[in-house]
Specification:
10 strands; alpha+beta; 6-stranded mixed beta barrel; elongated; single chain
């Protein structure tokens, strides 16, 4: 089908002549349509990959890869469990924590908050909060000193800075001669962290684990252990293996369960966007059908002459397949190059557009991510380019088949 003569004629038909200017214009439209579709698809997928990676990084800055908690209230044998867990495969670090809820009062401002008791010295093994401190240091949390580190948005709402005093109101109660009273404890703000996720920056506060145990009346128990794994993407499988080895004596969960809605939403949205944008490529690819149909109609005389000289129907079909492949290949290559270039520079191009037009696409006070991130994954590029080229190839088959069915006697009768 693809003999040198077939390739030569197919390549020759790609060059425009004066009487085929309109066909050439339609051909160029098909090429640029495919290119624009591929550019859009690669760029959007890269931006979505960037958002996913950015959000995952910010979430995992505060959330452990795996969490182990007790079946009942608290985890009493956590020290022995920690020594056992740290020797498990894929476990890189472990740290105990105490978790509870409380009201924080500062002057006339009151806010509910998630309180997490931590060991400041070993917390960096399982989270990145120490690297996200905007004022103060995590190791300023000392046992018995009743110091607290607040999320940036929470500190802003309460109107406090390091050195100020706040009151923590625990849901646990004290029985006194005056009646039942809530547990109150005065804390000193020693630091502020900002991880970039509103959920944590607005609703979380950190205190020393011993102070948290006293506040929530846990004694020597803790709420659980937080683990860091060597492969966060394999966390579900590692967690299942760990639960089996622990004989289901503890609750073991991974970060994908803790944020399952977010995780599933990102994956679903990415698949839907891929299908929607792929339709753009499909429309552009099937423009090749109309282009080749017009070319076949214009070349009826040439096809009849070639057939009378002995060219087979498969060779005639090959000529127009070559023409369609060239159109699809050029469009795919141009689109792939343009998509890669745009995806790699979108973090520079978007701010430049914002400055030029004086607009802000992602307002910092509305969105948790105020910059448009991009992460180019080469497997996405190969997939998009391959599908675009495959659609272009499929679009050539029907017009090429019609060309192979041309009857030389019928055509030459009117020539």
């Amino acid at each position: 089908m693809f003999k040198p003569l077939v390739l030569f004629i197919g390549l020759r038909y790609t060059r425009a002549k004066r009487r085929t200017q309109f066909i050439s214009f339609i051909t160029m439209t098909s090429v640029f349509g495919i290119a624009l579709g591929v550019i859009a698809l690669i760029t959007v997928l890269s931006v979505m990959n960037g958002f996913e990676a950015e959000l995952r990084e910010r979430i995992l800055g505060m959330t452990s890869h795996t969490t182990i908690t007790g079946i009942g209230d608290g985890l009493k044998d956590w020290r022995a469990l920690e020594k056992k867990i740290i020797n498990f495969p894929h476990v890189e670090g472990a740290a105990p924590f105490v978790r509870g809820q409380a009201m924080i009062n500062a002057d006339r401002r009151v806010s509910g908050s998630l309180i997490r008791g931590i060991e400041p010295e070993i917390e960096p093994k399982v989270s990145e909060v120490a690297e996200k401190m905007v004022s103060g240091k995590l190791n300023q949390l000392e046992a018995g000193k009743f110091r607290i580190v607040l999320g940036g948005e929470l500190a802003k709402y309460l109107g406090v800075i390091p050195g100020d005093k706040i009151t923590l109101i625990s849901p646990q109660i004290n029985s006194t001669p005056a009646g039942i009273l809530p547990r109150l404890r005065r804390f000193t703000v020693v630091g502020v962290f900002k991880v970039g996720m509103y959920e944590y920056d607005r609703n979380m506060a950190l205190i020393h684990i011993s102070d948290a145990a006293k506040l929530f009346q846990l004694g020597d128990s803790v709420s659980g252990l937080r683990l860091k794994l060597d492969d966060l993407f394999n966390a579900p499988q590692i967690t299942r293996d760990m639960a089996n080895q622990l004989f289901n004596e503890y609750r073991v969960s991974d970060w994908t369960k803790a944020h399952s809605n977010f995780y599933k939403a990102i994956q679903t949205e990415k698949k839907v966007m891929f299908i929607i944008l792929l339709l753009i490529v499909a429309v552009a690819a099937f423009n090749i059908v109309s282009t080749l149909v017009m070319v076949v109609t214009d070349k009826h005389g040439d096809i009849a002459i070639l057939k009378t000289q002995g060219m087979s129907a498969s060779s005639v079909m090959g000529i127009f397949i070559v023409l369609g492949i060239i159109i699809g290949l050029i469009g795919t290559v141009l689109g792939t190059i343009g998509g890669i270039a745009l995806a790699l520079n979108v973090e520079t191009i978007v701010p430049a557009i914002e400055r030029f037009f004086g607009v802000e696409f992602l307002a910092a006070d509305v969105y948790s991510i105020s910059k448009l991130p991009s992460k180019l994954i080469w497997s996405d590029v190969y997939t998009v380019a391959g599908i675009a080229f495959l659609l272009s190839l499929l679009a050539t088959l029907y017009p090429a088949w019609q060309a192979s069915k041309v009857n030389p006697a019928e055509v030459l009768r009117y020539e």
